[in-house]
Amino acid sequence: MVTGEVIERTLPPQPDLVVGFVDDLAVEHGPVLVTYEAGPTGYGLARALLAAGHNCQVAAPSKLLRPSGDRVKTDARDALLLARLVRNDDIVAVSIPTQAQESARDLVRAREDARMVLMSARHRLSKLLLRHGYVYDADAWTGRHDTWLRRIRREQLLPGGFGTLTAFDDAYDAVTHTLARRDRLDVAIAALAADSEFTAVSRRLGCLRGISTTTAVALAVEIGDWHRLTGASIGSYLGLVPSEHSSGGSRNQGGITKTGNSHARRLLIEAAWEHKAKYIPGKTMQERWALAPAAAAARGDAGNRRLHHRWAVMTAHKKRHTVANTAIARELAGWCWSLAVMEE
Hints:
By secondary structure, the chain is mainly alpha-helical.
């Protein structure tokens, strides 16, 4: 029974103490529904409460109904807002991952962090050389590029100033160390893809062009339970649908909403570019198809042909490439969903 009574307590961020407090509330007031916002608290508290037999939901912060004129934000006011929303059944809950799913998610996000750090380190090194007039005009960050970097250091920078040489060594070491870090994480992700609860899904996702092993595992762990979505809703879930501001007879659409999981959205945007080139299944694609069920391979082939055809149509209509690629990514998300929920 909802009585409207408000009980305020400030608790330390230890799950066992929170569970003990909820246990006491349940004894005195009956069944308790615990709600908190997704964020740095993580999902350990939710799993602890569920294991203790309590109902718990984690609210999606972007879906909370906050008054536009409310400019005062405190923990106490946030807690009261959540209580009112729970009473009115206005909470949009996120899916609570298992401990194994969260562990895998930490791994793929660590790899994403390494990718961004590596990109930044390479940028600093290349711009250091550019300031001194050294430009590499071929494919960068290859074996030949590395040989060129070492030659520039030996022949050009070594006789020069001590400061520039030290700065180069520091930037070069940062690139080398971050690259090794990324490669170690790639090996761990490959092991996860080969033998884990995500193996079947990632192999089916790999039947699509642009979905490498790393991308497939990342999509599998970031989205988690694919069955809670549909082919029509996954695009909006990932923020790949156009925003809209319409009133009366006027309809105005803008850029994509960019809501939901930004990591999964970026992976799909990058994968969509692969479908622009002529579609000829090569050795790598054939090897991925061999690891997946025949039905998944056939569906992946159909998806690849469809997405390349859509690229060709939009190119013929002179669509901007960025706009066309986003549309392809939205449709690619639907093909990924159909493969992820496919029965073995």
